[in-house]
Amino acid sequence: MKRLLRTATVTLYVAVACSFWACGRDLPQILRSAVVRDPQIAEAQANQRVAQSTLEQTEASRWPTLKAGVNQAVLNSKKDYKFTPGVEANWKLYDFGATGASIERDRIKTQYYKNKTSETAEELAFKIATDFLEALKARESLKVAKENLARHEHIVKQLRIILEYDPGRRSEFTQADARRIQVQESIISYERALGLALRRLARYVDPPVTESELKDPFANMPITDLLNKYKVSEEDALAHPSYRAQARELESIEAALKVAERSRYPVVGLKAEANTQDSAVYLTMSADVFNKATAPGIELQRHQAAAAQAKLAQIYDSLVQRAEVAALQMREDQSRIEISEAQAKALEQVVVDYEDQFKIATRTLLDVVNAYSELASVKQLRVQAQADLMQAKLEYLSATGNLGQWAKIPDVSDENAKAEGRKKGEASPDAKEGKGKKKGKGEPPPPLTLTSVDDDEAMELESANADDAYGDEPYTGPETVFVRVSDSGELLLESEGHPLENIKSESRSVAKNKAKGNNAARKTAAGKFRRK
After folding, report:
1. Which of 110, 398, 520, 529 fits as disulfide partner to 51, beta carbons 3.0 to 4.6 Å?
2. Alpha carbon 493 to chain centroid, angstroms
3. Are 172 and 365 in contact (CB under 8 A)?
């Protein structure tokens, strides 16, 4: 029975899997699986980590440095060739904000690379979707060409039968067969275009996209719904990944300009040296008295900032223009589709009429094959108009920065949120902790614990305090005492289970009636606490 259940379960899984693959994947599913695993995204995420490491390195420059070394004289008039170990410490005290500007520059750089990762995902999704639409267009064109080939083969078959009884019509047969070969040549070109498009898709998609999976991804999204859901506005343009990345680039250049300007100011530091023979502490100050490269470096940053500002305006205009042009093109392509469909319907009737008239010799073969070619051309125009409409919708989504949202592509720029299952925009626990530390928030540091009193000494201290306020309580072992510093700088003691005020007041009363043995015990404990 168990074996039958196991077999039935496996069969059910296989059936579900087969039905899934039979249904095929749509374009959003293909984009979601392809974008996340693409090497371009891995490279962009690596650049994010590089920028984060650079930021941490710049932030660490605020800390003092400590070096240890050893010297040994090779030639010495005193004949002293001993090793001289020593340490050297350096601490930058004040640099007129140069370090802070460098940190701000690198922090903006991390945001730039994060937006650059989102931009890479959008561009990659657009590239894959474009190849998908090209493959779909090639398949539809191939379908129309095969229908045209079927018509030519039908007329050639009829002419072959007629030729058996009327050899004088061989010229018509040859003409029809030549047209059929011409259609076959067009089929080969469409098959080549389809194969190349699928091969380009196979570079990004695994498993490769099959011909059966090619279908209109915007079939259930009319133009009005698309325009109403994703509107062209200034806010959408400012939120586009390309615009945000360029805006962060401009901010980083402005921060670099500030760093270059602050580098002209002096740097005040503290230097300490110590070895087996001497030790000293120095207050140092260094500044560039003459450095001809400083002024051109500042001008360079200003020119780069102007170029970045111009590029930012260019990106904004390009995004708005792309979206507006795509919206106009969608309406135009829809009209082209309606006209071509009506024209194709009329030409289909013309073809039927010409075939009937050809049978009764009122129409020539040339009229029939020309009608075939005209019908195929109109249907190809309909395929082209449909492809242009899909491409215009794709352009519109890309220009408004909503392609990733439409395809539900995960945020590849936030690796930690993806790994920890956090929502987009939510700070990581490390970031929250770091933010609290920077602002001085969070829990206070753990109190000091009096751990230098041994068990025997604790017994002695407890017996010495037998007449104190806590003398009526049984001894339960060494008690943990917490030491805190009040706002006025007074050292306060706190015991587990006893309020701070009670201990403070009771300690004052106990201090007045303290015996000599109590004083000796307290001196012993206090000495051990200071040594600790």
Report:
1. 110
2. 52
3. yes
- From the list 73, 84, 55, 86, the residue with the least C-alpha distance to 271 is 86
Give the Cα separation of 289 and 300 in Å (integer).
Answer: 21
**Would you give the distance in Å from CA 432 to the centre of its chain?**
20
* Tokens, residue 370: 């020309």
Rg of the chain in Å (alpha carbons): 41
For the chain, report the end-to-end CA distance as a whole number of angstroms.
Answer: 72
Strand partners, 289: none
Domain covering 2-63+82-414: architecture = Up-down Bundle (1.20)
Which residues lie across from 481 on neighbouring strands?
A: 495
Spans of the chain below 70 pLDDT? 1-23, 415-532
User: Which ranges in the chain are annotated with CATH 1.20.1600.10?
Assistant: 2-63+82-414
CA distance 185 to 203: 28
Q: Tokens 């200003």 identify what position?
A: 302
Residues 421-441: tens digit of each pLDDT: 344 444 443 334 333 433 443
Looking at 400-447, list the stretches that DSSP marks H as alpha helix, in order from N- to C-terminal side.
Answer: 403-407, 415-420, 429-439
- In angstroms, rounded to a whole number, what is the distance separating the alpha carbons of residues 355 and 364? 9
CA gap 525, 481 in Å, rounded: 12
In 34-161, which ranges are E strands? 65-72, 83-94
Kindly list the distances between the CA atom of residue 186 and the CA atoms of 190, 259, 340, 368, in Å, as whole numbers in the listed order: 6, 63, 21, 19
- Using an 8 Å Cβ cutoff, are 343 and 149 in contact? no
* Number of helices followed by number of strands (H, E) in the chain: 16, 7
pLDDT of residue 208: 92
Closest CA to 33 of 43, 21, 22, 25: 25
Output the six-digit token pair for 40. Answer: 């371009």
CA separation for the pair 504, 513 (Å, rounded): 15
Above pLDDT 70, what percent of the chain? 73
Q: Which residues are within 8 A (CB) of 66 and not within 5 positions of it... i.e. 6 or more apart?
A: 87, 88, 89
Q: Which two tokens stand for residue 312?
A: 């930012």
Q: Would the CA dihedral through 92, 94, 97, 98 be positive or negative?
A: negative
Cβ burial 153-168 (10 Å sphere, 16+ → b, else e): eebbebbeebbeeeee
Q: What is the identity of the amino acid at 419? A: A
Burial label for 273, CB within 10 Å (0-12, 13-18, 19+), is middle
Nearest to 272 by CA among 430, 81, 65: 65
pLDDT of residue 11: 52
